[in-house]
Amino acid sequence: MNMRAFTLLLVLTLSACTTVDDFRKMSATERARRVCERKNDIQQLSAEQRQLAGAIQSSQMDLGRGYKIHKQCHPVRVYGPVTTTCKKVGNLTECTEFRPEAYETRCIETPVSISPDLERQNIQAWSSAQIQVTQRLQEAWKNCTHFVERLSPEEAFQQYQ
């Protein structure tokens, strides 16, 4: 299961456990945090922020090492140990062999040259974009929390669902 599907499943499972009674017990700030962290615009901006941070970190690592690493992966069939099972039928003994098989991912890493100047330009562009995304994310959080904190627990729960 990929990470995005797992996260979605976890959110759906946890949200099914939260009730309006839980919202009544929460502070206005906690209700706002619960509601706002589920808003699409905040989730998208957070994902964009993580993606930019990852790109910057990856490019900085490439600069430090002097090259990129291209990773090519493919599934490979692997076999487990042979298991022999025998049973006696009358005067005969019948044996069967079983060898489990599974797949594992094997990767080949290949060094690839980089242009240090281009990497630095990319880092600069991503850093500028990251600042803008952070500002938009902070504004979205501020607007959302300001709105939700003024709602009753029941109204906040409706926003949460």
TrEMBL record:
<protein>
    <recommendedName>
        <fullName>Lipoprotein</fullName>
    </recommendedName>
</protein>
